[in-house]
Amino acid sequence: MRCILSLLPAILGLSLIMATAQSGTHHMPTPPEPMAPQQQHNEQPQVHTRRLDVVKVQNEADDLARLAQTIPTDVASVRKGMLPKDVIEKLKQIEKLSKHLRTELNP
Question: Is residue 61 part of a domain?
């Protein structure tokens, strides 16, 4: 008796699912019409004609990495009370290279 009672919720749930599936009254709503159907056919996909200079971008990325590797040493010097004279210029150059790379790589 306990076995049948423990299966009762599962049996009821399964019968409910089967009854819903057999009813066949579920219809998906139709999507709305496009707001401007004439534009949909006339628009051409945008093709980016700008050509990426891969060698230049790679060189800039290498320069950026090289400069960035020197910053932890410069910050360690600052902790000792010494400010390297070129650290601010290095940070500005890192920012400039980063911004340029971002604009080159972002279509």
Answer: yes
Q: Which residues contact 7 (CB under 8 A, 6 or more apart)?
A: none
pTM for the whole structure:
0.51
**Residue-number span of the structural domain to which 61 is assigned:** 51-107
pLDDT per position as a tens digit, 70-96: 999 999 999 999 999 999 999 999 999
pLDDT digits 0-9 by tens, 31-46: 777 776 555 555 665 5
> Residue 35 carries which DSSP code?
S
Structural element, H or E, at residue 62: helix 54-79
Task: Classify residue 7: in a domain, yes or no.
Answer: no
